[in-house]
Amino acid sequence: MHVDPKPKVLILNTPHKISDGYLSIMNEMADVHSIEQASHDVLAERIAEAVKEKGPFVAFVVFIRWWDTPLPWPYDEALLGPLIETGCRMITAGGAGYDWADMKYLTANRVYYANTPIMAGRRTADTTAMMILQALRGTSEREADARAGKFYDSTKPFAKDARSSTLGIVGLGTIGKLVSEHMQHFGMKVIYHNRSRLPAEEENGAVYVSFELLLLRSDVISLHCPLNEGTHHLFNKQVFDQMNDGTIIVNTSRGAVIDENALVEALDSGKVRCAALDVYENEPNIHPGLINSKHTILSPHCAVANETFERDQQIEVMLNLETFLKSGKPINAVNSFV
């Protein structure tokens, strides 16, 4: 009796945080071949060699080793061409963002890109909520005072009260919804703006407004939109000028959504009361004006990083592979085809 061979899958790095049981399941589902992480150009050579010697592959599964540099981005034609030209139809990698993937190229070739929004969403939302509260309380300045032995500085404004403040969320997706839920527990009113309004049952207390009204009504603005051509420098000088004086900006999405030169100017003028940032326009470099400002809360793109994130990310990547092999579409596909 003829038995169809297992589909071939190419993986980048063997997952190291999940149990052997998950690896056994992956090997039962597919004929798995692995290559090791390298710079973009070296990895492109390794992929081409793997396709020639072991391919073709139906899927490319990425288990990034975040501590290894340089990271092998972008995921573009130069890297993925040999895979896609020979029939690869799904790429999956960790993280909620996917600006490092050439989505036009993948979609034009009917290749799914699948991310890990559940793993990233919960942790990023928790971090965002923490940063919003820190910014409202002015913790950076108050900690500096405490370390300097200064108490009861009457020249500084009182902390803002969450219960009398409005949070404006730009991008009420997976992470934005979780942030909305978190901050409503602290008594904040939540408004949001998307390209289009969500169904009422998905808003969960958040109120849809235009972008212009969000700028005018928000005490805190939290950014959760993807980085693309339409959102690059979405927050620029013109946008900052439309805000109320003393607005708080929180960004845990992608750094280039904000024009950092314009943000530094807004911080210096008082237009922005505080900027709480986990992401930056030119990572790993941080704008000197942000570093030197007394009105910033900064973390090094680590919103998702805790002791379990790698394990959960690798499990979610495996789920994308499993659903793709079973149904032809990964559960977390971020693109679709007409």
From TrEMBL:
Coiled coil: none annotated. Pfam families: 2-Hacid_dh, 2-Hacid_dh_C. Residues 39-335 form the D-isomer specific 2-hydroxyacid dehydrogenase catalytic domain. It comes from Rhodocollybia butyracea. GO terms for molecular function: glyoxylate reductase (NADPH) activity; hydroxypyruvate reductase [NAD(P)H] activity; NAD binding. One of its GO terms (cellular component) is cytosol. Belongs to the D-isomer specific 2-hydroxyacid dehydrogenase family. The keyword Signal does not apply. This is D-isomer specific 2-hydroxyacid dehydrogenase. Residues 130-303 form the D-isomer specific 2-hydroxyacid dehydrogenase NAD-binding domain. Keywords: Oxidoreductase. The keyword Nuclease does not apply.
